[in-house]
Each structure stands twice: as C-alpha cells, then as structure tokens.
# Entry
Amino acid sequence: MTECTRDDVRDRLPDLLHGRLDAATRAEVTRHVASCAGCAAELELLRSMRSALAPAPRVDVRRIAAAVAVARGATPAAPDVRPLGTRRVASGSRRIAWRIAAAVVAAAAGLGAWAVTHRQPANTYAVVHQAPPHADSMPAAPTEAANPPAAPGHPGAVVKTPDPTTSPAANPKMLASTGHHGLVMDGGVSDLSDGDVRLLLQSLDSLTAIPDAEPAAVSYPIDDGGGAR
Amino acid sequence: MTEPKPTADEPDDDALIARWRSGDERAATLLVERHATPLARFVAGLGERREVEEVVQDTFVRAFASLDGFRGESALRTWLFTIARNLVRDRARSRKAARDVVSIEEWHAATEHDALDATVADETEARMRRAVATLTAMQREVFTLRVTEGLSYKEIAAVVSSTEGAARVHYHNAMRAIKEFLG
# Structure
C-alpha cells in the first residue's frame, strides 16, 4: 500500500467514514481519495475494520433503563424487568431469611432440649414410683393418672408431698437413675450414660405432638361447707 | 452500525437530558437505547467480555446520578465512554488484586471466544480482529474509538485522559501496526 503524504487528509478518513465532515471538507477529502490509491486503500481498510469490529454484545436496554429509574427512586418503566444490581440485593435478602429461619429452628430445638432436661420433680416422682419397690416400708405413692387433681382442702384432694425416702434431695443417686419404664433426669444431657440417652430417645420417639383425641371432661364436687350435693 | 441515532425528527441528547431533568423518565430510556450498544461494543473492546451488560448498566446509573453536574462541554457519548473506561479499569484492578494470575476458567473462556470468532466470522474479519488484538491497550482504545465509534481526537483525548496530539500519534501507530500485521 502506497503511503500518502497528506496526513491532514488521512486524519480525516475516519470522519469521512462516519459522515462527520462538513460539506466543504467532505468534498475536498473525497476528491483527494479519488485520486490517491493509498488513501483509497486506507479508507477501504477502515470500512472493513469498522465492519469487523461492529458486532457488539447484546444488552437488555429495558433492564438498564429500569436500573436507572430505580437508582433515581422513580418507578421503572418496565417493572417486570429487574435491574442487574438488584439481583444481589434479592439474593442477600434470601440469605438473611434463611439465616433467620435457621436461628428459629435452632432456638426451638434448644427450648425443647431445655424443657426435657428441666422437668419438674413431680414428674420425677411419678417415674420413680414406677420403679420396682425395694422395701416394704415404701408405699406406693399415688400417681397423677390414678388420682385426678382436686382443689386443696377438699377431702378428695391429694396434695403431693415428696416422700423423704424417694426425694432426690434425700437420695442423690436418684438424680440419674433409671427404672424399667422411665428415666429420671436432672442436670444436663452430658451427664447421661449411653443407656440413659437411648431411653431418652425412645421416649421422645413415642411422643406425639398432637393427641389422638381430646381429653375427657372431668367434673369435681365442690365443697361449700354443707357437704356434697 | 445498527444502534439508533437521532434523526431530524428525534430530539438530540441535550434535548433529552433537559426533558429528563424536568422529570420525563422516558427521556432516560431513549438515551439508553441510543447509547447502550456503542457502549457495549466499546466495553467489550476493552477486554471486558463476561460482564459487559453490568458495566454498561453501571455506566448509565452513574451517569444519570451525576447528570445534574454534566455541563455539556463534551458530547454525552464521550462522557459515557469515559465513565465506562474507568469502570472497566477499576474492575481489572480489582481482579488483578484478587488474583495475579489468570484463572484456568478465564483462559478457557477467552480461548473459546476467539475460536468462535474464527469459526463464525469471515476469515478476513477474524484477521482484522486479531490485528487489533496485537495493539497495545492505549492503541486499541484510541483506534476503536476513532474507527468504530467515529470520535474526534479531541473526544478521544477526553475519554482516555490524554491529549489530542497523543491520541493522533496513537491512532497512526495503531494504523501502521495493523497494516503490517495484515501484510
């Protein structure tokens, strides 16, 4: 390719290509190109280069316009088009929601564990009473199932008083002892033996969250001082 | 080029900017439609291939966020190119800081892209693309802005933070290198 010495004209070839010359300059440059093989070849090369480099990646104009509107606080023209930048926000919200859900589940599990490991001594007594009696002097204490609760002071009322011989306070060994049908628990789960843990898991498996039927109504006589009616 | 350009019946950029400033959101959409494709081409030409749309979107968001300070001393497109170029450079710096070596995945992506170019495009066009790829980053930017986008040396100088004379030198050096490559 023969190089042209008219640098001023060569400088304007891209402008000629893009139609950015005024009429007078365009006429002058066009005239020169018509008579200069070097400039004609360079103009053709530029045209080919422009064509080769023209393909552009596709971009979603509506999405970009929506992003501009969102950034400005205005309602986007196409609300169904979510700007690229909001994807991260949405995904971040989802992550936070999952974390909250995980925290709630963990808290519920913790409360459940606390409830199991902090049962009241009354329950403990009932379980202990199911253990085989080992002494004749130890009477069978009433269980809650056999004796429905009654108002204190009523003749039929049963006021549970811890038996000193079976009280955990009097017999520390009972704090972590097991019977044939139940488990005595106090303290933490880490205090349990493998057998105790197995029993605990079996009891948990036997629990049902929702009772099969509503409990039957129970009526109690009211002592108004004049005897039962 | 297929991107829309203002015709005699269509408002120019300054008119659309004025409409947008007065609360016409549609004007912003028209400006995006007008300049998104050239921006995407420019961004891709700078080497950003995976997140072109994100860069273009970020460019517009930033531009419109500070459009109140746009004095119109340069063309809107020149200003947009400047923002996009800075964004691409920032991203490149971030990536370089994150990892100094090119990942295998990125290397494969680039290789596949080039292979696709060679297969799909005309062989002559593929050679021209390879010729541009041999240029230095500055030569490539200047050449692309001059030949593909039709910017003047003055506008190019504003985009690449250089002088008009330096832009002219870069363009002619790029042209010489391309001619040599193409033989």
Residues 101-112 of chain B have pLDDT under 50 and may be disordered. Chain B touches chain A through 48 residues (CB under 8 Å). Residues 7 and 13 of chain B are 11 Å apart (CA to CA). The longest helix of chain B spans residues 76-98.
